[in-house]
Design a protein that fits this description.
Elements: H1 3-55, H2 64-86, H3 93-118, H4 126-160, H5 165-172, E1 180-181, E2 187-188
Antiparallel strand pairs: 1-2
Length: about 200
């Protein structure tokens, strides 16, 4: 093997190592950026549970199932969030989170609507008012954290889909990071190849 061939192989190996390290770093940043989002989701789960418990004395018999369903949805969303972090968001973990959060958001909005119908001119109880304030604040924080996560995921996905780095990604099993969308609830966008999703 001549010197020119050795030099080419050395340059190729050096480039592949650099591409691998870059993908690994970007993927790690994407995973780490999910942490604050998961933390705020867990806080929303806790608020939803507390709100359901506080609302129960105010609800009629026909309205009680909404509170019970909200409690179940909050617990399911919590399990899904924990599972997604434990699995480093592999496979369908975030899709499960998205579905659980969407269900939770729908039931939470439904309960809030029921409470608004029940309140008198004096307004709801102070404890419920505070929980509703926390819910609104968390919605904004979740939105911001979702944007941060998506920004990191976009950077990683962009690097992964640029040829010839794509070959390195395929060789080492790098997968496209799912992107999150939604407002009150957390939902998942699809993953079209071009242009890249959110």
């Amino acid at each position: 093997m001549d010197i020119a061939t050795l030099v080419i192989l050395a340059v190729l190996a050096f480039w592949m190592l650099g591409a691998y390290k870059r993908l690994k770093r970007l993927r790690a940043k994407t995973h780490h950026s999910y942490g604050p989002l998961a933390s705020h989701l867990r806080q929303r789960h806790a608020v939803a549970l507390a709100l359901a418990q506080a609302a129960r004395p105010l609800l009629s018999g026909d309205q009680q199932p909404v509170a019970a369903q909200l409690i179940d949805a909050a617990r399911q969303a919590g399990r899904a969030t924990d599972e997604a972090q434990a699995r480093s968001m592999r496979g369908n973990a975030l899709k499960v989170v998205g579905a659980a959060e969407e269900s939770l958001g729908t039931l939470l909005d439904l309960l809030v609507g029921e409470l608004q119908d029940l309140t008198s001119g004096l307004g709801p109880e102070p404890a419920i008012t505070e929980l509703l304030r926390q819910r609104d604040a968390l919605q904004e924080q979740i939105h911001i954290c979702r944007l941060v996560y998506n920004r990191e995921a976009e950077r990683y996905n962009h690097a992964l889909h640029v040829f010839p780095t794509t070959l390195v990604g395929l060789a080492w099993g790098f997968k496209t990071a799912p992107l999150l969308s939604g407002q009150a609830a957390l939902r998942l966008k699809g993953q079209p190849s071009s242009p890249m999703p959110l």
